[in-house]
């Protein structure tokens, strides 16, 4: 049997070589069943319209609609910060992008608006240190620590008014 398998000829029927294949019927070509719907014929177009002389079109004045881009200047909200916390946040963002000069300006403005904002002093100290101003950074760090200590003392005094210092 092996002899016949390995010495098969190209023209020889495979059913003759293998006894299992000899018993099975020869496969027929697969038949396809179409499930497609027939393509509808294009509908006829209506006859073209007859055009007489062009009609006069009345021009209407443009209607003014209020959109975001057409707001009056006094109605637009400024993107500039107005309070100390906003300047602090913008300064921290600039500091994260390594724009230390702009960050120092924002922290300084935040300190001008709220002198007891310890975070602004600390953040300004970080930017000054990054620029190489060690003395300015040390001064800002010290001020930040002083404010934190004073705010903690004030908090404890509010919680325990009977305690004397």
Explained architecture:
This protein has 165 residues and is mainly alpha-helical. The chain has a domain at 84-159: Tetratricopeptide repeat domain (Serine Threonine Protein Phosphatase 5, Tetratricopeptide repeat, Alpha Horseshoe). The protein contains seven helices and no strands. The chain has helices at residues 2-6, 14-17, 19-23, 84-96, 100-113, 118-131, 134-159. Helix 5 runs antiparallel to helix 6 and helix 6 packs antiparallel against helix 7. The protein is elongated. It starts with a helix and ends in a 6-residue tail after the last helix.
Lay out the secondary structure.
Layout: H1 2-6, H2 14-17, H3 19-23, H4 84-96, H5 100-113, H6 118-131, H7 134-159
A few lines on this structure:
The protein is mostly helical and 165 residues long. The protein has helices at residues 2-6, 14-17, 19-23, 84-96, 100-113, 118-131, 134-159.
């Amino acid at each position: 049997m092996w002899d016949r398998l390995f010495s098969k000829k190209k023209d020889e029927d495979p059913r003759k070589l293998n006894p299992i294949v000899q018993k099975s019927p020869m496969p027929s070509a697969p038949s396809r069943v179409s499930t497609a719907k027939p393509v509808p014929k294009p509908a006829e177009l209506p006859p073209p319209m007859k055009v007489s002389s062009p009609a006069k079109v009345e021009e209407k004045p443009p209607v003014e609609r209020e959109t975001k881009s057409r707001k009056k200047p006094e109605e637009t909200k400024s993107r500039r910060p107005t309070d100390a916390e906003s300047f602090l946040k913008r300064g921290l963002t600039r500091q994260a992008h390594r724009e230390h000069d702009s960050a120092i300006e924002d922290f300084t403005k935040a300190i001008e608006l709220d002198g007891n904002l310890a975070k602004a002093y600390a953040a300004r100290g970080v930017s000054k240190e990054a620029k190489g101003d060690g003395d300015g950074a040390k001064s800002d760090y010290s001020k930040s620590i002083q404010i934190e200590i004073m705010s903690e003392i004030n908090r404890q005094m509010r919680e325990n008014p009977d305690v004397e210092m």
